[in-house]
Amino acid sequence: MISAGFCKTRKSYVSVYEGFDPLHQFGWADINRAFVSRYINYLRRHGYMPKVVNSPPTRFNV
């Protein structure tokens, strides 16, 4: 069962990602080290804490 907290976290994550990729031009095949570096730099420029930037991606699994 999915909790309300999970849904809120997921919605926040999607909102942040849409700021990075508003046209949804990237797919799974595009994810590589260069993509991740660009995304992390985007997060840092927008003031996200290093702990959040460095969190394991497994936290975002559905």
What does this structure look like?
The chain is globular, with a radius of gyration of 12 Å. 55% of the residues lie in helices and 0% in strands. It is mainly alpha-helical and 62 residues long. The protein has three helices and no strands. The longest helix is centred in the N-terminal third of the chain and has 17 residues.
Largest sheet: none
Note the beta-strand portion. under 5%
Structural class label: mainly alpha
Distinct helical segment count: 3
Helical proportion, percent range: 40-55%
Shape annotation = globular
How large, in whole angstroms, is the Cα Rg? 12 Å
Distance between the amino and carboxyl termini: 11 Å
- Give the tally of β-strands: 0
Q: What average pLDDT do the residues reach?
A: 77
Which stretches are low in confidence, meaning pLDDT under 50 for 5 or more residues running? none
In N-to-C order, the SSE pattern is HHH
